[in-house]
Amino acid sequence: MKKFIFLFFTAGLLVSTISLARFSEDNEPYTEKTPKEVLDAYVKAIGGAEKIRKIKTLVLVMEAEVQGMAVEMSTVRDMENLRMMQQVIMEGNVVQKTVVNNSEGYMSAMGQVQALSPEQLETLKTNIYAFPELYYEEMGFNLKMGENTEIDGEPAYTLLVTSTEGLDSKEYYSVESGFKLKMTAEIAGDVEFRDYQEVEGVKFPMKVSISNAVLPVPLETRLIDIQINQKLDDSLFE
């Protein structure tokens, strides 16, 4: 269970390759895009850079069911002070918690507490941003276009991303809507984003599905609460 919990929260960070079908020769080719154009289209689709940059704090609460047990997963982000807290609650008990507070951080699970290494801190800092895709170039990520594909029958651009820590990722963006449809992760597996809905001018995926070798069936999560630019208690990051 400890391994499963850790996998969920690394889903947005650690990514690997998967095998996806290519278009047949009968398909019309997509308009050629650069990585910047694909990311710009995504940012525009979810509300625009101006609105996204106005998000200074963000609280997301998701729920799921694991082997008949209710699971609540919450993430608290403080972009101005480079702070983040993630926790998993099962049967009313906190079973995993990760805290990043600028240059310090730790992860606790099953009664054990472990300080985060400098490398882990740098990786998790990327996830402090509400939408890190807006900051990929600023953070020095290497971006390349991959081969076009389909995600659940929807034409998609493939973006190949390498972080400053050397983590490689594949991300898939809808040709039509610009939305991010899927990413893959070496540890977390495949992560799909669905049902984008607008909250205070910014669109969030209301459903996230995670599939990997550890989970017997895909983990279907639902976003049940969003709080934008709320004042955060410092105790959350202790």
UniProtKB/TrEMBL annotation:
- May I ask which residue range the UniProt record assigns to the signal sequence? 1-21
**Domain of life (superkingdom):** Bacteria
The record's keywords, sorted A to Z, are: Signal
Can you name this protein?
Answer: Peptidase, M16 family protein
Q: What lineage does UniProt assign to this protein's organism?
A: Bacteria, Pseudomonadati, Bacteroidota, Cytophagia, Cytophagales
